[in-house]
Model the fold of this input.
Amino acid sequence: MPVRRTGMRMRTTAIPVMIMRTPMIIAMVIITITAIIITIKVMATTTKTIMVAMGITAIPMLMTTNEPRSVDDPGGMAEAELAALYRLMTWLSPSFPVGGFSYSSGIEWAVETGDITDAVSLKDWLASMLTDGSGFCDAAFLAQAHRAVDADDASALRETAELAAAFVPSRERQLETSTQGRAFIEIARTAWNCDRLDRALAPCAGLIVYPVAVGIVSAAHAIPLAPALHAFLHALVSNWISAGSRLIPLGQTDSQRVLAALESEVAATARRAMSATSDDLGSATFRADLASLRHETQYTRLFRS
Done:
């Protein structure tokens, strides 16, 4: 009996102790859960801040995830991106038969007169043409034609095509850009024709110069403007360098150094052209324009412009 009483006493005294400790346990659980919730919120806020700082949002990531991926490379580019890249590489490749290798855009006269004598002077000449001359203007016309096709604005496209044709400073440059534009349209329609391209070309009854042609075709095939601009300017600069390397002449390594040195100018010109309007069009490369005029009467010529 004493043992039983002692045991009962021990059990009866443990109950109040547990009752006293229960609020403390509950409080500790609540504090722990609260700390976990606060930690999750802080981590979410921090992650969101980092994503915003890096220019990343959740919506584009979800959109990219839902796009069909390549079977061979599930984590690579979407099928539409691969198709756009393939077509841009083809259309603006030196092997695409628009005859770009036969034109120098007045560089031949500049070499003849001593304005261009080596890789450094060639780079400086081309940088001016790119940022302050025909390079920027052509890129702006490409962007305007691309946007007009995207918006199904036939009137704006017709005005852009007419203005771009009237903006060419010389007869030889007119021949160069109109011949290449016509060839680009014809070959693209033959090999990659689509109904939207036929509709876009309908209002353009007159001449379609080369940059406008590239803008129309790329927009008709749903190729974004930014890569189309960069690819066009890269092809333009590459053709100028190819002409200069044959005329000076330059070796292949020096030619690639010039192309590498113009990388930032190409990117900057593309960004300017993206937001340019008709009021921003203009050229300050008088010597280059004079070269395209003087080349018409140059005694010995390898190029058509």
